[in-house]
Amino acid sequence: MLPSLLVFPLWGAVAVLLPLAQSLHALQAASDDRKTWLFYWICFAVLSSVLCYFEWIIQIPFFVLSFYVDLYAEAQLCLVLWLVAPRLHGIKMVQSHLESNSTTLGKAVTDVVREQALKLREVLLSVSKKAE
Question: What phi, psi does 89 have (nearest 5°)?
Answer without folding.
Answer: 40, 55
